[in-house]
Specification:
This protein has helices at residues 18-29, 45-49, 58-64, 75-82, 100-112, 144-154, 169-195, 202-216, 219-229, 240-256, 265-276, 286-291; strands at 11-14, 34-37, 53-54, 67-70, 91-94, 116-123, 137-142, 159-162. By secondary structure, the protein is an alpha/beta fold. The chain starts with 10 loop residues before the first strand and ends with a helix. Bound molecules: ligand FVH. Residues 15-20, 38-40, 43, 71-74, 77, 80-81, 96-97, 122, 125-126 line the site of ligand FVH.
């Protein structure tokens, strides 16, 4: 790993989509020598003007530096891009969104080809990259030694959070957090749908929604406590029996407002099933047991 005159590790980056381009600009701005490759070469033109070296092929880009960061659309594109690349002795960091199983298979694939491997899951959108204090970060898992070796370089575009030696755990954390986010968006979509036909300004509802969701979010700590202790009644102030009794009001309100219950209904159904098992004194943690296995 040869550093440049100011001690910055050279980086190869494969993929110049929205996220790859943001990553590239962050490393260039921080003074890292950067070699880039993109399947569609035109996307590299602006970065060449900003100081990046543009490789004609992915194999040439990988050969240019020890550290290669990959940020492509999906696991299949990683296969295609790296098909002809020589990976012996390379440090491969894959930020492409993948499943945990794909990440583990990719780690094994890299090992068989003589490369060290680190998997990443990006918890940021492109405008957050390279901008301090936006809260963006990247989960990493796989080789701890590789993570420590490149920690400073990987920390340039966004914060870094190492979540263990299992290469699949970065992807798992990534997908877990994003799944929770989609659940939140689903709830917000239902809320906006409820007021859609009324004389209520969505812009007036938005801050109320944001504040309420923020106030409720810490409930996840109680859920974690329940899962650890196995006692799902610990500290419960709004029990399942009461909450299930309230669900017809939510469904009737949706009907009155002409709103489909298709987002909320499945969650209520799980709550009802858990209650039917005799878990009325619990909170909502028991729903998790119904989802697993
Ligand atoms: N953008 C975002 O908000 C999210 C934030 C969280 C993390 N994701 C993940 O980051 C990966 C890259 O996302 P992206 O935003 O850069 O995606 P695109 O702008 O669509 O660019 C896709 C790049 O992948 C290249 N590509 C696609 N298929 C192939 C292939 N078969 N072989 C080689 N390269 C391929 C594509 O090249 P081109 O279309 O320009 O030729 C782009 O470079 C992703 O995993 C997100 O889930 C982003």
């Amino acid at each position: 790993m040869t550093r440049n005159a100011v001690g910055k590790t050279p980086v190869t980056l494969l993929g110049l989509g929205a996220m790859g381009t943001a990553l590239a600009r962050a490393w260039l701005a921080a003074g890292h020598p950067l070699t880039v490759w993109n399947r569609t070469p035109a996307r590299a033109a602006a970065l060449a003007a900003e100081g990046a070296r543009v490789a004609d092929t992915a194999a040439e880009a990988v050969a240019a530096n020890t550290l290669t960061v990959v940020c492509l659309l999906d696991d299949t594109s990683v296969d295609e891009a790296l098909a002809g690349a020589g990976l012996v002795g390379r440090d491969l960091v894959n930020l492409t969104t993948s499943t945990p199983a794909q990440a583990r298979a990719r780690a094994e694939w890299a090992r068989e080809r003589g490369a060290r491997y680190l998997d990443g899951g990006i918890m940021a959108v492109p405008p957050m990259i390279g901008v301090p204090d936006t809260g963006g970060y990247v989960f990493y898992s796989g080789s701890r030694e590789l993570f420590e070796r490149h920690r400073a370089t990987l920390g340039v575009p966004a914060g870094t959070t190492y979540v263990g030696a299992d290469a699949g755990h970065a992807a798992l954390h990534d997908v877990a957090l994003l799944s929770a986010m989609y659940g939140m968006f689903a709830g917000a979509a239902h809320a906006f749908a409820l007021i859609r036909e009324e004389d209520i300004d969505p812009a007036a509802l938005a801050p109320l929604l944001a504040d309420w969701l923020t106030a409720m979010a810490p409930a996840v700590h109680q859920t974690a406590g329940h899962l650890r202790s196995g006692d799902y009644t610990e500290g419960v102030v709004s029990n399942l029996a009461m909450q299930v009794a309230g669900t017809p009001t939510f469904l009737r309100t949706a009907e009155e407002q002409g709103v489909s219950p298709e987002l909320l209904g499945p969650y209520f159904e799980l709550m009802r099933r858990r209650l039917a098992e005799g878990s009325g004194e619990e909170g909502l943690t028991g729903v998790i047991d119904l989802l697993v296995g």
